[in-house]
Amino acid sequence: MIERIQSSVKEYGKGYEFLKDYDYNLGADDLTPFGEQQLVDSGIAFYKRYQGLASESDPFVRTAGSDRVIVSGQRFVEGYYKTQGRDAFSPTKGILVLPEDYGFNNSLNHGACPAFEDGPISEIRDQNQKAWLGVFGPAINRRLNNKLPGANLTLTETIFMMDLCPFNTVATTTAALSDFCRLFSIDEWASYDYFQSLDKWYGYGRGNPLGPSQGVGFGNELIARLTGTPVDDRTTTNSTLDSSPVTFPLNRTLYADFSHDNTMSSIFAALGLFNATMDLPLKYKVSPRRLHGFSAAWAVPFAARLYVEKMQCGDSSEELVRVILNDRVVPLRTCNPDRLGRCKLRGFVDSLKFIRSGGLWDQCPLTADV
């Protein structure tokens, strides 16, 4: 696209002149230096937040098997141990990597449900994003083509142009916004965020009939950790790994798992974190506040993180659960929460009926006519 613009556009509109000499050198599926530092900072923040627990045991760390997720885990560990005053001389030591190969059960990466991956419901996301793009995209597309005569950008390429703002920004070390960001208004960025929110909602969240099902395996692992009982799951978990105290210990105080934004979206849906959110409309955008905190930017930004805390307060022996998403407390709604959004552990586990009942996993096989 950039090459076509540079070869076909002779006169650039005001503010678009930088495109004439822009050098596209973004990698694919790589963690940028900025992203690596975010994960180091995340490890530092994690240690400082839970410093009182860190002396009891080292965190048990798992990652999905793609390179950037593995590096994410390594940088997190580096920041954690550096803050603790220990040298993470071997960042991979102690990190359990779950391969993303086809046929390997992996609760940190979707891919084991054929009806979700390849059936008709796999098209819901693209169809709904296309509908919203048809609402907000044409005006932007006309302006871009007016400012870049000869480029003949399509609606889809309009989104690609907007994508270059965040990806170029985090690919540099100057801490400055990319010039691409200034090509669009604040309202247009809100529409773009909504476009990405539709991706997560209808691709991997509650807007997809089998979206939450992709997070059930992790949900059952979470229940096991919270209750100190063996994993009971027949979806995406690896029974060999999860039945071993070496590869799935239940006696750690701290755990850290690293996954992809799409799988995280399914996990959030399986846990019911956005059960109060209505299905996202396709003809107009709705703010994250009206959606009870849901948007792609709020839920799964770069370096997104979910903390699930088990705690006891004061002299009470009652164990409580609190969920924090990107430093915001998520008010739990289905387990008789207190005024701080926390639930009793038993109530929280009991509320995860979708997870404990198998999460519609029996619908994953593709039927013969698909």
From TrEMBL:
<comment type="similarity">
    <text>Belongs to the histidine acid phosphatase family.</text>
</comment>
<dbReference type="GO" id="GO:0003993">
    <property type="term" value="F:acid phosphatase activity"/>
</dbReference>
<keyword id="KW-0378">Hydrolase</keyword>
<dbReference type="Pfam" id="PF00328">
    <property type="entry name" value="His_Phos_2"/>
</dbReference>
<protein>
    <recommendedName>
        <fullName>3-phytase</fullName>
        <ecNumber>3.1.3.8</ecNumber>
    </recommendedName>
</protein>
<dbReference type="GO" id="GO:0016158">
    <property type="term" value="F:inositol hexakisphosphate 3-phosphatase activity"/>
</dbReference>
<dbReference type="InterPro" id="IPR000560">
    <property type="entry name" value="His_Pase_clade-2"/>
</dbReference>
<dbReference type="InterPro" id="IPR029033">
    <property type="entry name" value="His_PPase_superfam"/>
</dbReference>
<dbReference type="InterPro" id="IPR033379">
    <property type="entry name" value="Acid_Pase_AS"/>
</dbReference>
